[in-house]
Specification:
There is one protein chain. The chain is 35% helix and 25% strand. The chain is of the alpha+beta class and 275 residues long. The protein is globular. The N and C termini lie far apart (65 Å).
Length: 275
């Protein structure tokens, strides 16, 4: 029988709740799942509200419909490595990232972790499965300290039934996730490992064509998983990119020319055989 540590919490700002933490006697046990208290009579910070309204999930939805949803939502804070939800958990909430980074992943039968996606400020996840009252097909973990907005799935479904206009926003967000997965498949099929890493670095640049310095948002093991390669392949890709003006030191990448790197990404991998 699983042992639980129970903590009863009371404060003027929150309702009373019980936090259940599974006892983990050894490695390989099920990750800890934390139960979050709902705020009672509190107001969501203005900056968080603006991030939610500007997210792909809600940017096309009428303000009059979004505000009631955010009033019933909760903001959760997570430390690096903390589990948000686990594969096969009931999909009870849809999440919007306020700050930090989240990864979605699956564990294969052989124990290998497959990174499905990474999400940061303004990104949402869990929409499609939550709207079907299904179970999460992936696990979610904070890869940095982060804040999330958790929107109750039942509340959102009730809103959809009474106000179909918000469904357009749901479809837009779901399409964006599908488009992202198609792009990932295209990268894996049509680009070399160094080209995939170069494209990842370009996504971190702020629209510059000349020199650029970017900070790697999370550790290199996760970058490798996100790009569908092993850590040693990522190291070789970084070494190859030195020929194209990219120098990586710890968590910083110096790019000599963004435009030149972009041209390298668009280059046909087969062209190297004709030189």
């Amino acid at each position: 029988m699983e042992q639980l540590t129970l903590t009863i919490v009371k404060s003027p700002q929150t309702t009373s709740f019980i936090s259940c933490h599974p006892y983990k006697p050894s490695l390989g046990s099920r990750p800890e799942k934390r139960l979050i208290a709902y705020t009672k009579g509190s107001t969501m910070r203005r900056d968080i509200t603006q991030i939610a309204k500007a997210s792909l999930l809600f940017q096309n939805a009428p303000t009059a419909l979004v505000e009631p949803l955010l009033e019933s939502a909760r903001v959760t804070r997570h430390t690096r490595g903390e589990t948000i939800f686990i594969q096969d958990d009931p999909a009870e909430a849809i999440y919007i990232v306020v700050n930090g980074w989240i990864k979605l992943y699956r564990i294969a039968a052989n124990g290998t972790e497959a990174v499905v996606g990474t999400f940061t400020k303004g990104h949402s996840f869990g929409e499609a499965v939550a709207l079907r009252s299904a179970r999460y097909p992936v696990s979610a973990e904070a890869v940095t300290e982060c804040e999330l907005i958790a929107i109750n799935a039942v509340t959102l479904i009730q809103m959809l039934e009474s106000n179909p206009k918000i469904a357009i926003s749901m479809l837009t967000a779901t399409y964006a996730h599908l488009h992202n997965l198609v792009s990932q498949v295209e990268q894996l099929k049509s680009r070399t490992a160094p080209q995939r890493v170069a494209e990842f670095l370009l996504e971190l640049c702020q629209g510059s064509d000349g020199p650029c310095q970017v900070i790697l948002p999370y550790d290199k093991t996760l970058i490798a998983g996100r790009l569908g390669m092993k850590p040693e392949s990522l190291s070789r890709a970084f070494a190859k990119l030195k020929e194209h003006g990219v120098h990586v030191k710890q968590n910083t990448a110096e790019i000599k020319s963004v435009n030149a790197l972009r041209n390298y990404v668009e280059e046909d991998p087969a062209s190297s055989w004709t030189r």
